[in-house]
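Bench notes, afternoon.
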Amino acid sequence: MTLAISLLLGTLLGSVASHPAAPDSCWSRADRAELATRASLLDSAIAPLGGGDLKLCYSRPKARGRVIMGQLVPFGTPWRLGANEATALHVPVAVRVGDVTLQPGVYSIYAVPGPTAWQIVVNKSAARWGIPIGAAVRAQDIGAVTAPSEHTDAPVETLTMRLEPSGQDAVDLVIEWERTRVRTTIRRAS
């Protein structure tokens, strides 16, 4: 089944289809040739929401035998949710991420991981390199939501983010890497 038919069926049936979108539709400071040579490839997930497409753009680092959570990604420290450019969230309609209301536009998101819960932070500055997340970047924060972390059944070698159905006019942003999964809901604002 082609991607277009899958998306059409998902929309008609009221479900959310997540699939990779063209990486060139995501902002990057690199040209196409450089993107193809990066160790952490640019990827995206897309889901219909409120008559438009919610899209997430991020780079996908690999674990490569390293301890990720609590070491490579320290607990209590802001993390760009990937590699390279900041992770970007393209919002087609007004949405709520926890108690944070976002108008249509493009935002960055980053996390402050902890051993049992993460803060997922929404930021106004999207077209930027992902680090450092210092005072100048944090001054652009719109708000944050706390999401519990859980263990995955099997290890996840490459950072994976996807958008999954979560009721009417809502999707879950699911983040998985190593043996950690975090889920937060993005719903159309009423």
